[in-house]
Each structure stands twice: as structure tokens, then as C-alpha cells.
Write a structure and sequence with these properties.
447 residues, mainly alpha, Arc Repressor Mutant, subunit A, Diphtheria Toxin Repressor, domain 2, 3 domains, 3 strands, elongated
């Protein structure tokens, strides 16, 4: 079983807490430094991978490099970082080449091509590893630990390679930020500008492959794709700005790396890589639940608010429509229930709310529910007329601009009337030359 950084550090829990605060353990410092470099690198790369819809590329490359790592070890039967890096890089590029060949020369979709490369190269790596383990040196190589990662085994050379990859990535983004932005969001426009799409993609894939190789020791092949996808996905749920997305992605990757390393150091049985991914998953879950832009709870409350608003405006509209036909300002609650298709009990709460807001007066509040007599106040009439105005203007717009039949526009207007803003209503009124009647001949209230 692979050692964790907590098992490498001697002493009990209290000694480990003190050791964490003192930051004197070499293994801990290397792990923190390694995940700091990886956090920045994967946080930045992950955003480009996400917006380019290449989320599975990282996972595919992580599995594709496995046979290259085994062959790199076979070079001189030692875990020479340079030999492992070269072998993994060759395997990564072979995987990308095979993927592109399958995508271009077969009718298979990209997801199928990725699955073929992932499973094929991983199977080849497992076969080579089983053959290698029959050799005395290969049995003690510990290459199987690259599947899950072993941050406790990070060395100075590993951290140096991570630093080299980060410097190269920062230089690429700094020099070609606009080109990367355009090619990521609008490849067709980038091609029309004669931008070197192939070169930009090749540079990005190269850095992605390099990052995969240097991150295997820390996170492992099975969890590496999460390190690319989760920080960017979390940031994507929070902001619409790509620049802010890059910063937030790096922040979440760094914070998860530090927290995961600290948790692994304090809990001796917890491997570092899975701890880091676990914290990334927690941050993504929090963003999924509470993000103001795309969070489930804010969306639920917005939907609920809009539903209540629609119900409220529809009730006022029904009251106004009945009063418009009766040419007075009062009606029985039973008549409103029959007209709206709702039970009187279902209308009791909104009517009570309208009464508190000064939109409706109840002339006989002590009477039975269905026999109560309602009357719109001037404020209620004005609010109901605003809803009716939006509805009838939109119906007229659909018949004039969309050439829809008058008997086909009611449902569309019913859906849109609750979300039209005052500015758009004014523009509709102006574009229709300030009409006074809707397609059905009904009067359009003035704004």
C-alpha cells in the first residue's frame, strides 16, 4: 500500500498538528509546493479544456501515458524522471494522434474516439506492467502507484518539472491570450482571421500532456481528470467573465490542494490525491447549490418567485377582465373562482395579500368565502391594467410582425406577459404606432 505524507511524518496527532503549523517536514513542504504549482497549472488549463469541450481529453491522456511510463522505466530499469517523462510524452502524443486519426477518418463521434484511446492505451499499459512485474526490478518499481498517486514520494525533480510546466503555460497564456480566447470560443471566426489554429491547439495539447505526466505522481491517473475539470467547472458556475473564471479556478485548485495536503498530513490513513479531489468536489457541490448565477437553490427561488408573480398577476387580470365586462368595480369571489377555474379556497390567500397591499377591498369580510364581494382599488386597477396592456400589445405584435393568426397568439402572450419589462413594452407600443385595440378588438389600456 502507498504511503501517505501523514505516515511519513513521525509522531501522534498532536505532534502532527504542531508539525503542520511549523511546516518543517520536508515531505510536507514538497507536497504543498507540488500542489501549489499543480493548482495554478491545472486551474488555468482546466478553463480552456472546459470551454473547448475537451473535458475528457485530460482523462484520456492520463490513461494514455501509462504504457509510456512503463516503457520509460524499462529504459534502464529505474524510475528516472527524465526517462519516465519522455516515455509518457511520447505515449501522450501517440494517444492524441490516434484520437485525431479516428475522428477524421472514421464516422465515429469524438466521445467514441476518446473512449477507444482511453481503454486501448490503458489496456496496453496494464499488459506491459504485468509483463514488467515478472522481472525482479520491475516487481519493486511501484509503477502501479501512479494509478492513485503518492504525494509522499514527490521529489525535488518532480516539483522542478511542475515549475517548468507552469512557467511554459504562463508564458503561452501571456503571449497568446487573445488568440487562445478567440480559438476557444469561436474557432470559425478565428479561422477567418487566419489565426494559426493548429499551432495554438498543438501548444495547448502539449502543455496538457506535460501537466498530465508531472501530475501522475501526485494525483494518479484515475483521479487526474477531476483536477482539470472540477476547478474550472466550479468557477464556471459562479461567473460569466472568462478572466474571473481563470482566477477563481486557480483559487479553488490551490485551496483544495492545500486543504487536501493538510488533511492527509493529519490523518495518516488518508492519501493526498483523493483528499484534494474530495475538497474540489465539496467546492463544486457548494457552487452547484448556492451560486447566484447557476446554483440550484437560487434558481429554485427565482422560479418560485416568478411562479408566484405569474399567479398574482393572473388573478388580478381575471378580476379586471370580469369587471371590464360588468362595467363596475366589484364582483363575488365565487364569480372569480368560476372565471379563473380555481377553487375559492385557492384564491383566499392571494386575495388576502392583495388586501394588505391596498390592491383589493373586501366589502363584506364577515360573509362566507364564496359570497365575499371584491372591489379593485385605484392601485389595483392600475396594476391589473399594466398586465393586460403587456398581454394585448404582445398579441398585436405577434399578429403584425410574426404573421400569426389572432386565434393562435393568446398562449404565447400568456407566457411572456409576466417577464416583459417597462422599456420593452414602451418600445412595442412605439413600434406598433401606439395602438388602441388588440387583434380581438379589445381595448389596450394606456400606460
Amino acid at each position: 500500500m502507498a504511503l501517505t505524507i501523514g505516515q511519513v511524518a513521525p509522531g501522534g496527532f498532536v505532534e502532527q498538528v504542531l508539525g503542520l503549523l511549523r511546516f518543517q517536514d520536508v515531505t510536507l513542504r514538497l507536497a504543498f509546493l507540488g500542489f501549489t504549482l499543480l493548482g495554478v497549472q491545472c486551474g488555468l488549463l482546466g478553463c480552456y479544456v472546459l470551454v473547448r469541450r475537451m473535458a475528457l481529453i485530460g482523462d484520456t491522456l492520463a490513461h494514455a501515458v501509462f504504457p509510456g511510463v512503463v516503457l520509460g522505466f524499462c529504459w534502464n530499469m529505474t524510475k528516472n524522471p527524465v526517462a519516465l517523462l519522455l516515455g509518457a510524452s511520447v505515449a501522450a502524443w501517440a494517444g492524441v494522434t490516434v484520437f485525431e486519426a479516428i475522428k477524421r477518418h472514421t464516422p465515429l463521434k469524438p466521445d467514441a474516439a476518446l473512449a477507444l484511446v482511453l481503454s486501448g492505451f490503458y489496456g496496453l499499459g496494464a499488459f506491459l506492467l504485468s509483463c514488467l512485474q515478472k522481472h525482479p526490478a520491475g516487481a519493486k518499481a511501484g509503477l502501479d502507484r501512479l494509478l492513485f498517486g503518492q504525494a509522499a514520494a514527490l521529489g525535488v525533480q518532480d516539483v522542478a518539472l511542475m515549475a517548468i510546466g507552469l512557467v511554459a503555460l504562463v508564458l503561452l497564456i501571456s503571449l497568446f491570450y487573445k488568440e487562445l480566447l478567440v480559438t476557444s470560443f469561436d474557432p470559425a471566426f478565428a479561422q477567418s482571421l487566419a489565426l494559426p489554429l493548429d499551432w495554438v491547439n498543438a501548444a495547448l495539447i502539449t502543455l496538457l500532456a506535460f501537466t498530465v505526466v508531472v501530475a501522475l505522481q501526485a494525483v494518479g491517473a484515475l483521479l487526474l481528470s477531476a483536477l482539470f475539470v472540477l476547478p474550472g467547472a466550479t468557477a464556471f458556475l459562479i461567473t460569466r467573465s472568462f478572466t474571473k473564471m481563470l482566477g477563481l479556478s486557480v483559487f479553488f485548485a490551490l485551496l483544495s490542494g492545500w486543504l487536501g495536503t493538510a488533511a492527509s498530513f493529519l490523518a495518516a490513513q488518508m492519501p493526498t490525491g483523493p483528499c484534494v479531489i474530495l475538497f474540489l468536489g465539496v467546492f463544486f457541490l457548494l457552487a452547484f447549490m448556492f451560486s447566484p448565477l447557476h446554483g440550484w437553490l437560487p434558481q429554485y427561488y427565482r422560479h418560485r418567485k416568478n411562479r408566484l408573480k405569474a399567479h398574482r398577476e393572473n388573478t388580478l387580470k381575471h378580476i379586471y377582465s370580469l369587471l371590464e365586462k360588468r362595467k363596475d368595480h366589484g364582483l363575488l369571489l365565487k364569480s372569480l373562482a368560476d372565471h379563473s377555474g380555481l377553487l375559492a379556497n385557492a384564491l383566499a390567500k392571494p386575495i388576502k395579500t392583495f388586501q394588505k397591499e391596498g390592491l383589493v377591498d373586501i366589502l363584506n369580510p364577515e360573509a362566507p368565502l364564496e359570497e365575499r364581494f371584491l372591489q379593485l382599488t385605484p392601485a389595483g386597477i392600475q396594476t391589473a391594467q399594466a398586465v393586460i396592456r403587456r398581454h394585448r400589445l404582445w398579441e398585436l405584435y405577434l399578429t403584425h410582425s410574426a404573421a400569426m393568426a389572432p386565434d393562435h397568439v393568446h398562449d404565447d402572450a400568456e407566457a411572456i406577459e409576466h417577464v416583459l419589462g417597462d422599456a420593452l413594452v414602451a418600445e412595442l407600443d412605439r413600434s406598433l404606432n401606439f395602438p388602441s385595440r388588440d387583434p380581438h378588438g379589445q381595448a389596450i389600456p394606456k400606460g
